[in-house]
Write a structure and sequence with these properties.
With 449 residues, the protein is α+β, with helices and mostly antiparallel strands. It has a domain at 190-412: Alpha-Beta Plaits (2-Layer Sandwich). It contains 13 helices and 22 strands.
């Protein structure tokens, strides 16, 4: 059989969602699974890429395999509550398929424009990690195209070491081609949300601890408030609404899908628009507006509020932005977060979006979550930013924490190694699966993974 000719383009300044860093890349786009081995034929280093929603350089390389055309559904089992699909399926496509049938994703990040392959590679987490773990905890099996051209099925019982290393392995063990994962049964597409304000960091930690039995929880945090208001926050709690809990007006179409994008940011905004002072004003207005309240709302605005703003990443200007997300062990979380917030206020490095979440246990390889609190922060790229982030890194390492690889584009290798003590065992599995290092990214080269 002749080798298929694959569409190949040369991309200048290819970026992920943060628009930083950038790379020149040869992009290969297979259209069917049987074309994937040909994508490996010309060598590497290469990396799989989905919708480009990692923030830094995780899916940037000299050669990129674009997986988004491999988005076919293979099987749906309503009785077992499972779905099997190709790795290029987006979570949005999965939701469109399963929500009308009474199911939801077991775990979802803050955007549905992520592929299943990307969700596995980053072992993404959501607002329910403290109860349900990360996406990989619900994957029953996956098929992986290895560097030697063989496709193997991995699960907790078949190739278990390779399976665990692939969950959160940032695409470095091979290309995920398809996967089967569990779904969550639901009666409606709506969420019962409770909103609670917290006057400071101590109060928001107490609210998290009082609501550990709630399925979904996250907090917006004012990262520039100081003094007695340090860490003032608004906690959002959520549960899937049952049919009987819906308002009468929603009971006729309880599993209705939501419409498309509502807003667009057509151009990059001026870099000077977001600064410490504008963020302070924004945070003050937001805290005053978000008062304690209970409501029923569709899953879209609860899980994916920013998905309604097309190209919202352009708000940060042409130089792009860095999303900085550390996690600290539970016993270090409070004091560590105080240090981080005080440093942010001291350097006047306000984050337009700042989210605090509680994690449950860690499971595997170089997957990010550990039991403790995680804080996600957005910072526009500037001349002083990276020195400031090095300062935050020192706090995180000293407190025994780590940085999320799917968000990172600038961490140093020594910081990564200090935060991921299982790196050596991951390397052993990777070296067996890919001894020539066919699979690699700018991230893996920068961090010496």
């Amino acid at each position: 059989m002749p080798t298929p000719t694959l569409p190949i383009t040369n991309e200048k300044d290819l970026t992920n969602w943060g628009n930083f860093p950038r790379a020149d890349a040869q992009v290969v786009t297979p259209r069917r699974l049987d074309e994937l081995p040909a994508a490996l034929a010309s060598g590497g280093p290469l990396i799989g890429r989905g919708l480009g929603r990692s923030y830094g350089d995780a899916s940037l390389a000299a050669k990129v395999v674009q997986m988004t055309q491999l988005n076919r559904f293979v099987a749906f089992d309503a009785q077992a509550g499972t779905i099997t699909c190709e790795a290029g399926c987006s979570l949005a496509e999965v939701l469109d398929h399963v929500v009308p049938r009474g199911f939801f994703l077991p775990v979802t990040p803050g955007t549905k424009f992520v592929t299943v392959g990307g969700a596995i590679a980053a072992d993404v987490h959501g607002k329910n990690h403290h109860k349900d773990g990360s996406f990989g905890d619900h994957v029953l099996w996956l098929e992986l195209l290895r560097a030697d051209g063989r496709t193997v099925r991995c699960s907790p019982n078949a190739e278990p070491a390779l399976f665990e290393a692939t969950l959160g392995g940032m695409g470095l063990t091979g290309l995920v081609t398809q996967a089967c994962f569990r779904l969550k049964p639901i009666e409606s597409a709506y969420i019962r949300q409770t909103r609670k304000r917290a006057a400071n960091l101590e109060a928001i930690f107490r609210l998290f601890e009082e609501n550990t039995q709630t399925t979904y929880s996250m907090a917006w945090i004012d990262c520039l408030a100081g003094g007695s208001r340090l860490g003032r926050s608004v906690l959002f709690l959520g549960e899937h609404a049952t049919l009987s809990e819906l308002p009468r007006s929603l009971q006729s179409r309880p599993l209705a899908a939501r419409g498309g994008l509502k807003l667009d940011v057509p151009l990059f905004l001026p870099n000077k628009l977001l600064n410490g002072w504008s963020v302070r004003l924004f945070n003050e207005a937001l805290f005053r507006t978000w008062r304690d309240k209970r409501m029923t709302l569709h899953y879209d605005p609860f899980f994916y509020p920013l998905d309604k703003i097309h190209h919202w990443n352009r708000i940060y200007g042409r130089r792009g932005f860095v999303q900085y997300q550390p996690v600290l062990p539970l016993e270090q979380s409070y004091d560590g977060m105080v240090e981080i917030l005080e440093a942010i206020a001291r350097f006047n490095q306000g984050s337009f979006l700042a989210v605090l979440k509680l994690f449950g246990d860690q499971r595997r390889g170089i997957s990010f979550p550990m039991r403790g609190y995680t804080l996600a922060l957005d910072f526009p790229v500037s001349e002083s930013l990276f020195r400031f982030l090095d300062t935050l890194d020192e706090i995180v390492v000293r407190r025994g924490g780590r940085i999320y690889l799917a968000k990172d584009g600038r961490m140093k290798a020594k910081t990564f190694a200090a935060g991921y003590p299982t790196l050596a065992s991951f390397r052993e599995v990777r070296d067996e699966a890919d001894p020539t290092r066919l699979f690699g990214s700018q991230l893996s080269q920068r961090l010496s993974i």
